Known about the structure:
Layout: E1 2-8, H1 11-22, E2 27-35, E3 46-54, H2 61-68, H3 71-77, E4 81-82, H4 92-111, H5 122-133, H6 138-149, H7 160-171, E5 188-193, H8 200-214, E6 219-223, H9 229-242, E7 246-248, H10 252-261, E8 267-271, H11 280-293, E9 297-303, H12 308-318, E10 325-329, H13 338-346, E11 351-355, E12 364-366, H14 369-375
Parallel strand pairs: 5-8, 5-9, 6-7, 6-8, 9-10, 10-11
Antiparallel strand pairs: 1-3, 2-3, 2-4, 11-12
Amino acid sequence: xxxxxxxxxxxxxxxxxxxxxxxxxxxxxxxxxxxxxxxxxxxxxxxxxxxxxxxxxxxxxxxxxxxxxxxxxxxxxxxxxxxxxxxxxxxxxxxxxxxxxxxxxxxxxxxxxxxxxxxxxxxxxxxxxxxxxxxxxxxxxxxxxxxxxxxxxxxxxxxxxxxxxxxxxxxxxxxxxxxxxxxxxxxxxxxxxxxxxxxxxxxxxxxxxxxxxxxxxxxxxxxxxxxxxxxxxxxxxxxxxxxxxxxxxxxxxxxxxxxxxxxxxxxxxxxxxxxxxxxxxxxxxxxxxxxxxxxxxxxxxxxxxxxxxxxxxxxxxxxxxxxxxxxxxxxxxxxxxxxxxxxxxxxxxxxxxxxxxxxxxxxxxxxxxxxxxxxxxxx
Length: 379
């Protein structure tokens, strides 16, 4: 058996490489997205990687593949699919079982729907169930479904796409957005705050790279995150790549001096250390730094992978620090994006950015109400 790895910009090109190399008689061992080499490994784009094999014994294909390739590939081989006309999908039974469970759960939700959605047309009831399953709060989903029911004709309700579009349209006003950072000539100081592990440093690197590389603005970085050496090293690497200054400060006095020294830059981005919203002493320490920085904007960063309860708690505990906007990270890793709509509907902080991956500077976008509302259907 011959095993070979192929990489291409997309799945179609990768499969074409497989067919040209193995003449169609190939077994796909696994497919996955990998990061292509980029500038210092930071600016690489995602590409498709496929491992394929030929001359696979036919008597016991799974066992033969497993004995001829390394353990990770052997595991993947148990669920391979042929690139040409393949026999039954080996995962078909599992997929059908999962679909059956999901259908049963949806039926259970429908049977226990609150009186607020009783009597809704079936398409809207299904839409309500999907939104709730994806994290949209039940009262909000019910309100949206009822408003759509009042404006759609029976003929329109027969179109699933139209029903989904109308529900999304009605969700959009519940998403508060405030736009991205704008520069108007005067220096602007922008701080990012938030709990540990939400991706503040990566996010600030994306913002800095976009302003410096794409908009050709004069950018400077300041970090007070001296607790994590890796965070400082990451920012220093970015600063070196895009050729902007990075100042590391230890005290409030250092911070004031750094901001004075950087007064001629158009934007100064301040990276702060992650703080648990329940650690009052460290929150007090962070507050002292923010008061010294007197930022024009303070963006609170939360992770989309957290529960709605956790995100709500973070917002509540950080509000005394005076955040002006909200950034949601790790949207690509979250399992229920409807909770973003719910969170936005419950807080006065408008969304500024959402991040959708680790790629610097690409995986960040200015939050748009319609886009965030549409995310409620994606998980």
